[in-house]
């Protein structure tokens, strides 16, 4: 039986929970539909839990706004950046005042790109300390959870999104609502080397695009430098670089020594400098045991387990600045469809500052949920579940396509890219899509949507003929003034749009 609600929220991370709570508090009947368990999935739950707020003497929303514009290399949507700067402190403080999560404020160290200390996190670190509380709160106020359920498709009638098709335990279900919010995260899971969990795989972005939604900034993919590769694959955490840790190359040289902020340069710069070395090693011999335990608990645990050898580092795919284009209320270019969190694009421009994404989830999750509850298209009747074909993919095909997709993204749309590698990626992704074309089952449809998100990243990358932020082209070095604007993709067309500084008010 199809189900009718007022607001559908797809995803179970911080953005989805923030949106669902806001919509429910507006009086809407809200369904969260997510792959795993809400509050225990996506990047949010494994994140370091750092949000940004203004609490330092001399800091202001204006300074934070300017930091974001500078960090995003002048491509951040100015209106979205201003809203984040103005609303972040209230939303972050609310974690404590409304949801009862004890917060710690790091008052000494500024995250790279931030002019003042702004880091706020749930005591004991880790994103799950926030998301599990938000999940509980959502349940208490009556948000309905549909878990272990995967979004397969949007239902669109007369160019308007009126609901979704969801697969649960190999059965399809339809949900209808005046408003549907996508909070499905980025497309990090499409990379061979990533710190994102595997439920974050970009199909929400590909699906929205297939239905006609605009995408923005897809060429900007952030690689995270603070990742240990050996003896374990864990985050090192930025804080210890403020307490004496350094990075050395195979010749034991501190290759960041001549940079003004040393190892605390923004992620795009540091990742690229690391990538240029043969090997990179972490040296934390100057960090006290006490600081290590507090500021880098994963590394501390490995020390206590007795690891003696090398501490090897390598950048991994971490975050997608691009995504579905939204306005300040999370509206996409498709009527009835909203997006928030990492699924959406535009706020962070060419490079995101640390602590910006979970804050974005709180600020724009709330805005999107509120607006989705207040407006929406009219859904007067429940429609039938759209028909899908049989799954005819041979055994092992899904895995094979997923692996090829990951290799294409890492090798051709990765840290080091050229116009040529990006164009090759487009072609290889076209071939991959063609192999799935004959199959009309839901597995092929999901794979196709992942390939679509990947293709959009390669397509936009090949179009941008400059190096800016996280998009570092080997064949065109440096920023070019004429490229100070955003690439917006709709279908297979791409448009260059400039949001100028005068629009920053
Ligand atoms: C290791 C790590 C550390 C990080 N640390 C920080 C930090 O300290 N501060 C910060 O600001 N940012 C951090 N980030 C980035 C940040 O965690 C993410 O950008 C943010 O959590 C995104 O939240 P979200 O709710 O938009 O998406 P996610 O938390 O990724 O959630 C996406 C949800 O959508 C669901 N989903 C996806 N596709 C479907 C589908 N087809 N059907 C149903 N459900 C679907 C997933 O299961 C998941 O529940 C970190 C990221 C990583 C990987």
UniProtKB/TrEMBL annotation:
Limits of the FAD-dependent oxidoreductase 2 FAD-binding domain: 6-358
All residue ranges annotated as the Fumarate reductase/succinate dehydrogenase flavoprotein-like C-terminal domain in the record: 403-477
Catalytic reaction equation(s): L-aspartate + O2 = iminosuccinate + H2O2
Enzyme Commission code: 1.4.3.16
GO molecular function: L-aspartate oxidase activity; steroid dehydrogenase activity, acting on the CH-CH group of donors
Family: Belongs to the FAD-dependent oxidoreductase 2 family. NadB subfamily.
Entry protein name: L-aspartate oxidase
Organism phylogeny: Bacteria, Bacillati, Bacillota, Bacilli, Bacillales
């Amino acid at each position: 039986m199809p189900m009718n609600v007022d607001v559908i929220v797809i995803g179970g991370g911080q953005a989805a929970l923030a949106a669902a709570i806001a919509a429910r508090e507006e009086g809407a009947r809200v369904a969260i539909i997510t792959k795993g368990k809400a509050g225990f999935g996506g990047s949010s739950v494994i994140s370091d839990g750092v949000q940004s707020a203004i609490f330092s003497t001399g800091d202001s929303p204006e300074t934070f706004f300017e930091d974001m514009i500078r960090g995003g290399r002048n491509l951040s949507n100015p209106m979205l950046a201003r809203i984040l700067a103005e609303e972040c402190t209230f939303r972050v403080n609310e974690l404590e005042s409304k949801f009862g999560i004890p917060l710690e404020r790091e008052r000494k160290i500024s995250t790279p790109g931030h002019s003042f200390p702004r880091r706020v996190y749930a005591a004991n670190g880790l994103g799950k300390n926030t998301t599990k509380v938000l999940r509980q709160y959502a349940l208490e106020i009556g948000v309905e959870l549909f878990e272990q359920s995967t979004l397969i498709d949007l239902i669109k009638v007369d160019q308007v999104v009126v609901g979704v098709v969801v697969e649960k335990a190999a059965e399809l279900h339809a949900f209808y609502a005046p408003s549907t919010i996508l909070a499905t995260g980025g497309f990090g899971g499409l990379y061979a080397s990533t710190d994102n969990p595997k439920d974050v795989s970009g199909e929400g972005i590909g699906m929205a695009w297939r239905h006609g939604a605009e995408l923005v900034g897809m060429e900007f993919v952030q690689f995270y430098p603070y990742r240990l590769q050996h003896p374990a694959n864990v985050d090192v955490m930025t804080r210890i670089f403020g307490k004496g840790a350094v990075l050395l190359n195979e010749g034991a040289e501190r290759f960041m020594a001549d940079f003004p902020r040393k190892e605390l340069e923004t992620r795009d710069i540091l990742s690229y400098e690391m990538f240029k070395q043969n090997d990179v090693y972490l040296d934390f011999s100057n960090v006290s045991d006490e600081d290590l335990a507090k500021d880098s608990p994963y590394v501390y645990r490995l020390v206590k387990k007795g690891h003696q050898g090398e501490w090897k580092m390598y950048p991994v795919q971490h975050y997608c600045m691009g995504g579905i284009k939204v306005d300040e209320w999370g509206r996409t270019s498709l009527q009835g469809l909203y997006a928030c969190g990492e699924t959406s694009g535009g706020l962070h421009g060419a490079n995101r500052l640390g602590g910006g994404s979970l804050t974005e989830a709180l600020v724009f999750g709330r805005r999107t949920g509120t607006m989705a509850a207040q407006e929406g298209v009219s859904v007067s009747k429940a429609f039938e579940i759209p028909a899908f074909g049989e799954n005819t993919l041979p055994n092992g095909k899904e895995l094979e396509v997923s692996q090829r997709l990951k290799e294409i993204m890492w090798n051709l749309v990765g840290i080091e890219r050229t116009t040529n590698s990006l164009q090759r990626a487009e072609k290889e992704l076209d071939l991959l899509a063609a192999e799935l074309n004959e199959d009309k089952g839901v597995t092929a449809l999901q794979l196709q949507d992942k390939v679509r998100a990947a293709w959009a990243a390669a397509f936009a990358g090949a179009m941008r003929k400059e190096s800016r932020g996280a998009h570092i082209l080997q064949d065109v070095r440096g920023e070019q003034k004429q490229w100070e604007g955003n690439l917006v993709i709709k279908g297979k067309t791409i448009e260059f749009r400039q949001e100028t500084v005068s629009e920053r008010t």
